[in-house]
Design a protein that fits this description.
Number of domains: 2
Number of strands: 11
Distance between the termini: 40 Å
Largest sheet: 8 strands, mixed
CATH superfamily of the largest domain: Endonuclease Chain A
Order of helices and strands: HEHHEEHEEHEHHEHEEEHHEH
Structural class: alpha+beta
Strand order of the largest sheet: 4-5-11-10-9-6-7-8
CATH architecture of the largest domain: 2-Layer Sandwich
């Protein structure tokens, strides 16, 4: 759980935790004695060694600091979790999070709709959610993830991050499948990447496949991404145009990632629906 009692940065504070945090933002790692000496020297305050130790212990307990031997520094993991939290907070503030109840059954589940105006912002949010769900999947949930769509645009705009998301699936022992329903050469390129990482991947050609939607399931969580006609056509045209990654235009990829559009990201938990989606598509791997 994220600790929101965030230490204050600045010379004006006289709180021991704030002073420890401020010093470590400028220099680290430091021992308790070194921190005590710097507080006395730099802030002309006489905080006892016990007060500094108590402050450090509390920050360490909250996950703000990491300890290596007898020396302390600010935890990178805490900084990243804080960044992720505020990214989501800003996203919800600017574009709004709207909770909907569209059936009586889903009213009992976690159901929310997020709206994005470009693929890059969607990709970061989507990735954060997948990593969170993978880490917090329930003991009674199937450790299976299924991704199904007509193309794999996210590998084009953020390859390193995308592979790290699914390496995280492996770390959490989640059996992962990728199925693309259009026989684009770039989808075969994606199959090679995911198979090298140890995941099951396949390309089909289903003429009636929906270009306006991608489905993700992980455990009992279902994610449905619905693209506006404008961005769906741009993605489709890109995948029809290029046969290899060597041919691709980086300018076009950048423009695609930042193209203004409307994308709905729908997420909810429902064991029955998640199972139905898995059963519908996993048969292609048998």
């Amino acid at each position: 759980m994220l600790e929101l009692s965030i230490p204050q940065i600045g010379d004006e504070t006289r709180n021991a935790k704030d002073l420890v945090f401020t010093i470590l933002t400028k220099e680290s790692p430091l021992s308790l004695i070194e921190l005590s000496n710097k507080i006395r020297t730099n802030y002309t305050l006489h905080l006892t060694y016990q007060a500094v130790r108590k402050a450090v212990d509390k920050l360490h307990e909250q996950g703000v600091l990491k300890k290596n031997g007898k020396r302390y520094s600010i935890s990178k993991e805490w900084v990243m979790s804080l960044r992720s939290f505020f990214d989501k907070l800003l996203l919800n503030y600017e574009s709004g999070k709207k909770s909907h109840t569209f059936t009586a059954e889903l009213a009992k589940e976690n159901y929310a709709v997020y709206t994005f105006d470009n693929l890059l912002d969607l990709d970061y949010f989507w990735g954060d959610m997948l990593m969170y769900v993978a880490k917090h999947i329930g003991e009674d949930e199937p450790k299976i993830a299924m991704n199904c769509g007509t193309n794999v645009w996210w590998l084009l705009i953020n390859l390193g991050r995308e592979t790290s998301i699914y390496v995280n699936h492996t770390k959490n022992k989640i059996d992962t499948y990728f199925l693309w329903l259009k026989d684009y050469p770039l989808n075969h390129w994606a199959v090679g990447i995911y198979e090298e990482l140890g995941f099951k991947s396949k390309v089909l050609e289903l003429p009636d496949a929906d270009d306006f939607m991608t489905l993700d399931t992980i455990g009992d969580t279902v994610i449905q991404v619905v693209y506006s006609k404008e961005i769906a056509i741009k993605i489709k045209n890109f995948f029809e145009k290029y046969k290899t990654t060597q041919e691709m235009s980086m300018k076009e990829i950048t423009e695609l990632a930042h193209s203004k559009c409307e994308i709905k990201f729908i997420v909810f938990k429902n064991p029955t629906i998640a199972k139905n989606i898995r059963d519908t598509y996993i048969k292609y791997f048998n």
